[in-house]
């Protein structure tokens, strides 16, 4: 799901001529396996008597109440895109972080106060736009943030760190084994129509801790719920590219 959103964003970037004509400024390896099951049945947080749907609802409610979290992880290379690494901090509708493709192409995302911005290094822009358009973009952006108009299709890429989207199974959730995610007991919720696995904390708040999709080589972890992230700050006006 993450790479699907990213592909759509890259396609939009390649065709978004508004970004090239000027930007308005403003203030295939499978992921590592989880720790083997530590218990044959779920306990804690009342999960033993809950259905998978009820646990999923609790997880979504807990993450929504926290409002902020840190998501990071990887998606293996496929026929259309290289391996993707994501490291993003989210606070409500705002976010700040970095996406890396094949270890060299990097894109920074920043959304704050209803405005969205991005930066891409040379490798990223050449990959997305081609050499000629990349040179044009780099010359006009000058290393500054590029503002994204809300009407642009590129804007949709900022949903890449949306935890609710990542926790949306194609089918029905199924309760699975109990395991641990970085020392925290967690119950696995599986999807009956895909290989999606969601790991929900069984102690403390029922936060989603990890999402796996072995078929897509995806492994993303969620942490720092409720934290304040000072890096999510609007760029200074002179750090945003102008027409």
Automatic annotation (TrEMBL):
Superkingdom of the organism of origin: Bacteria
Keywords: Signal
Residues in the signal sequence: 1-29
Positions of region (Disordered): 27-48
Name listed for the protein in its UniProt record: Lipoprotein LprG
Species this protein is from: Actinoplanes philippinensis
């Amino acid at each position: 799901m993450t790479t699907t959103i990213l592909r759509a964003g890259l396609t939009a970037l390649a065709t978004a001529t508004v970004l090239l004509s000027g930007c308005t400024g403003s203030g295939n390896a499978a992921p590592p396996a989880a720790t083997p099951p530590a218990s044959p049945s779920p306990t804690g947080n009342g999960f033993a008597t809950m259905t998978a749907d009820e646990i999923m609802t609790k997880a979504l409610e807990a993450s929504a109440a926290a409002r902020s979290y840190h998501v990071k992880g990887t998606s293996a290379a496929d026929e259309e895109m290289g391996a993707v690494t994501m490291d993003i901090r989210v606070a409500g509708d705002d976010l700040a972080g970095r996406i890396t493709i094949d270890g060299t192409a990097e894109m920074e995302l920043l959304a704050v106060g209803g405005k969205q911005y991005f930066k891409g290094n040379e490798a990223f822009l050449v990959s997305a736009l081609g050499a000629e358009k990349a040179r044009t973009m780099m010359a006009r952006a000058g290393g500054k943030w590029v503002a994204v108009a809300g009407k642009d299709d590129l804007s949709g890429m900022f949903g890449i760190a949306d935890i609710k989207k990542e926790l949306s199974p194609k089918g029905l959730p199924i309760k699975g084994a109990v395991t641990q995610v970085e020392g925290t007991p967690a119950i696995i919720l599986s999807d009956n129509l895909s290989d999606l696995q969601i790991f929900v904390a069984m102690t403390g708040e029922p936060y989603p801790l990890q999402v796996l999709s072995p078929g897509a080589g995806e492994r993303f972890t969620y942490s720092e719920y409720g934290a304040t992230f000072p890096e999510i700050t609007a760029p200074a006006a002179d750090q945003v590219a102008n027409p």
